[in-house]
Design brief:
Length: about 130
């Protein structure tokens, strides 16, 4: 029939802080598993397949699946400044429209998932600071 029934594959990205032991375990475990396509045909989800790969890493698996990664300059002061710059990039007209409709602007950092609420006072203070510099 020339029909694809199932297809799978692995994409592993080794982060800079990964230990040599972790890399060795992954290099040993992945080739020893049935093909990813066979696992997909068995009905396993991506999470279940990843769990099979990570089972060899023992207690680190729970941390790896439950922690929220943090990337970039997400310290509180830097994050707030980045958020204010992002909102400023919308332009005064759009910012004023959002404030008129909602009374505030809710913004979430896509790196660390921190959500902040910016009020009109926050934006005025930020604008005043920009004008002083």
């Amino acid at each position: 029939d020339c029909e694809v029934i199932a297809a799978g594959g692995y994409m592993v990205q080794i982060l800079p802080f990964a230990s040599d032991e972790t890399i060795r375990v992954l290099e040993r475990v992945i080739p020893s598993l049935p093909s990813s396509t066979a696992l997909v045909q068995e009905g396993l989800t991506a999470r279940q397949i990843a769990q099979r790969v990570l089972d060899e890493l023992e207690e680190r698996v729970d941390l790896a699946t439950s922690m929220t990664p943090s990337y970039g300059p997400c310290e509180e002061d830097e994050l707030r400044q980045r958020m204010l710059r992002a909102v400023a990039s919308l332009g005064k007209e759009e910012v004023n429209q959002i404030l008129a409709e909602d009374g505030q602007i809710e913004i979430t950092c896509e790196f660390c998932k921190t959500t902040s609420i910016l009020t009109e006072q926050d934006l005025v203070a930020a604008q005043n600071e920009v004008e002083r510099t």
